[in-house]
Design a protein that fits this description.
heterodimer, A: alpha+beta, PH-domain like, 3 domains, seven-stranded antiparallel beta sheet, six-stranded antiparallel beta sheet, 15 helices, globular, B: alpha+beta, four-stranded antiparallel beta sheet, 6 helices, 53% helix, elongated
């Protein structure tokens, strides 16, 4: 039975970490109480009170009910009081380890550890707070099962000693470190600025409104609605960019001495994610028209536990093609796919695709409006046509290729943007196909990256599909056998 | 497509599934069939009867439901008679097409191959669908038997994996057990 408790500093760390939220709730409650004439008045406590109580009680509840055990075989976690739950994950099944240091934890020398097996939440085990000894112990147990490329890492292979030092930078070869410009660019490319910036701007406006200063603020904006809109856009851009830089500060990727891939970032909250080779199903490469012009590429990892992007598996926000090629080679070794998204030469195709998608919808909109259909109905139908045309054109522009030398499968989509998703044959679980009157018309490769996913295309070479099927059947088994060999070789 | 008796089919798969040492299981593996090619094993001999029973039941239900709807909803005697005839003729014609042409083709064109490396399933003649699953990636083999299958002494086998794979139905219990044994044998490599 698990018998180790969360460290004594956990409750203080949780309170510290949630301090902005607790203070925000108290301030909101105080304002609501002070302004009974403004809806909802003191009744706001009906909503704020339970949130505040949860924030105050939850750390104690977790401290009292969470127990864990670490042994040679597995990590075991027991949670809950009335609905008690005991879960174990074998070290050999671990695909990624996340060590996060929120600022509340940092003040007390603690970290939060998440051990991931596959994509589902049920397969993730989270220790809310762990001291340096526990962190070192988890990494030491997991590291033999988190191996990356066939190439030897550049640094000395003294993983155990390094991993015991919680404050040391990620050891091994530095593959990439993002500059502030890179992060700002990433914020724009991913739309982070829109999400974070708009939310922050909305919160600011809510606060101004609550304080009764909304009319004053509107009056203060001279120059009419255009100036106000430009000001709001600038505010969203600045706040969004600033938040992205703050969150992903010092974003760096390393091939660690223990042979894993380490992604580390964060100023207020330090995140250290380690992924092993068995967890990597493939990579995704993307270029939007702007990146085609600038010769930049975005690289993402498809790992067994997640296919999410920035902050989990994204390696390069948007970097020169040569850098992406170098990192890919380091991460995947001989199986690294060539970075061939077209670059500037793909711009005419991108433009043609955009016209192909937009023109029918525009024509439909003009036709419907000229026939006297209501504008909202015309716009809705045109939007549906736009989406349909985009999906059809994207599917028609998809090509599936199998590379026997690298034993990897790539789906290239040359549309308005250029995409390439490459999956290792050993990660392909199944290959399905359809043919009409003896002619192959559709092929689909199934793989797992956080959830069941597929590469589907109507454009392929049947002889390559035959090679893929053979490789998927034998390669998958080979991967199993290699895992057995490693398991036998690794210390229990 | 090579045809075998159920016992021969079960026996040939079971021979591959025989519990052996890990080295034996690694053994020689065969290449997957080319795309669209038939698998080694067909469905149970009762497959055509099963398909015909399903067709008769479903089209019978459509005919009865349709006739009831016509009697309730259509008041005009002329239209009612025409609709009743249509509701009987169309399902009967559909059933005849299914029973005489489509079901035999569907049964003949359905086949599978199971090895320790892969499970291959092929279906359809004019529109042919195939799926090849790496055996080590199959999570579970589910065997089910409803009242019709039980009456015919056959079972439905569903392979659980990340892809959505149609059930293989019907198989003889021996063939289903042999298929399960092949998959489980491959899984044991993982637990070795």
């Amino acid at each position: 039975m698990p018998d180790r408790r969360l460290p004594p500093g956990w409750v203080a760390a949780a309170y510290l970490g949630h301090l902005p939220s607790i203070v925000g709730l108290l301030v909101a409650g105080a304002l609501a109480t002070a302004r009974p004439d403004v809806w909802p008045g003191p009744a706001a406590w009906l909503v704020l009170g339970p949130f505040l109580a949860f924030r105050l009680v939850d750390p104690w509840y977790e401290r009292l009910t969470t127990r864990f055990a670490i042994d040679d075989q597995a990590l075991t976690l027991r949670t809950g009081l009335l609905h008690r739950r005991i879960r174990s994950v074998r070290w050999q099944d671990v695909r990624a380890v996340d060590v996060v240091t929120p600022w509340g934890h940092r003040a007390l020398g603690l970290v939060r550890i998440t051990v991931a097996q596959a994509g589902d939440d049920d397969t993730r085990m989270r220790i809310p707070a762990a001291d340096a000894t526990t962190r070192a112990e988890v990494l030491r147990r997991a590291e033999p099962h988190l191996r990356t490329t066939a190439r030897e890492p550049a640094g000395p292979a003294d993983a155990e000693q390094r991993s015991t030092d919680a404050d040391a930078p990620a050891p091994g070869e530095l593959l990439y470190r993002a500059s502030v410009t890179d992060l700002l660019l990433a914020s724009l490319v991913f739309g982070q600025f829109a999400v974070a910036g708009a939310a922050a701007a909305a919160a600011l406006w809510e606060l101004i409104d609550t304080l009764g200063l909304a009319s004053t603020a509107i009056a203060a904006v001279e120059g009419g609605p255009l100036t106000a809109a430009a000001g709001a856009a600038a505010l969203i851009l600045a706040v969004g960019g600033g938040l992205t830089v703050l969150k992903y500060w010092s974003f760096e990727v390393r091939a660690t001495a223990a042979g894993q891939l380490s992604i580390r970032y964060g100023l207020v909250e330090d995140n250290d994610r380690r992924v092993g080779a068995e967890g990597i199903a493939g990579v995704s490469l993307r270029q939007n028209p702007l990146e085609m012009l600038l010769g930049r590429v975005r690289l993402g990892l498809l790992t067994a536990d997640s296919a999410a992007q920035l902050g989990t598996n994204l390696l390069l926000p948007s970097l020169p093609r040569s850098t992406v090629t170098r990192v890919l080679g380091r991460v995947l070794g001989d199986t690294a796919p060539p970075v061939d998204l077209g670059g500037r030469a793909a711009l005419p195709r991108s433009l043609a695709s955009a016209i192909l998608v937009v023109a029918p919808a525009g024509g439909l909109l003009a036709l419907l409006l000229s026939r006297g259909l209501a504008p909202w109905a015309s716009i809705s139908l045109a939007l549906v046509a736009l989406l349909l045309a985009d999906r059809l054109a994207r599917f028609a522009a998809s090509t599936l290729r199998f590379d026997p030398a690298r034993t990897s499968l790539s789906l290239s989509i040359r549309h308005i943007d250029a995409q390439q998703r490459t999956v290792l044959a050993s990660a392909v679980h199944a290959v399905s196909s359809a043919s009409a009157l003896g002619r192959p018309v559709l092929v689909r490769a199934h793989y797992f990256a956080g959830a069941p996913r597929t590469l589907t295309s109507a454009r392929f070479r049947i002889e390559e599909v035959t090679q893929l099927r053979s490789c998927a059947a034998h390669g998958s088994r080979q991967a199993l056998l290699e895992r057995i060999a490693r398991r036998r070789a690794s210390p229990r | 497509m090579p045809r075998m008796s159920p016992s021969a089919t079960a026996g040939s798969i079971a021979a591959r599934a025989r519990p052996r040492g890990e080295a034996d299981r690694i053994g020689t593996s065969i290449e997957p069939p080319r795309d669209g090619a038939p698998g080694e094993h067909g469905l149970a001999p009762e497959a055509l009867r099963y398909a015909n029973i399903l067709t008769s039941l479903s089209l019978g239900a459509v005919a009865v439901g349709g006739a009831a709807a016509v009697l309730l909803l259509v008041q005009d005697p002329g239209w009612r008679l025409a609709a009743l005839i249509a509701m009987v003729v169309l399902p009967v014609a559909g059933a005849a097409l299914d029973l005489l042409v489509l079901n035999p083709i569907q049964v003949r064109s359905s086949s599978y191959t199971a090895t320790i490396d892969f499970v291959y399933i092929a279906r359809g003649r004019w529109v042919r669908r195939t799926v090849l699953i790496a055996t080590s990636q199959i999570l579970n083999v589910e065997t089910a038997q409803g009242p019709i299958l039980r009456a015919l002494d056959v079972v439905k086998v569903r392979l659980t994996c990340i892809a959505d794979v149609e059930a293989i139905v019907p198989l003889t219990p021996a063939a289903a057990e042999a298929l399960r044994a092949v998959v489980m044998d491959a899984q044991r490599v993982d637990d070795a």
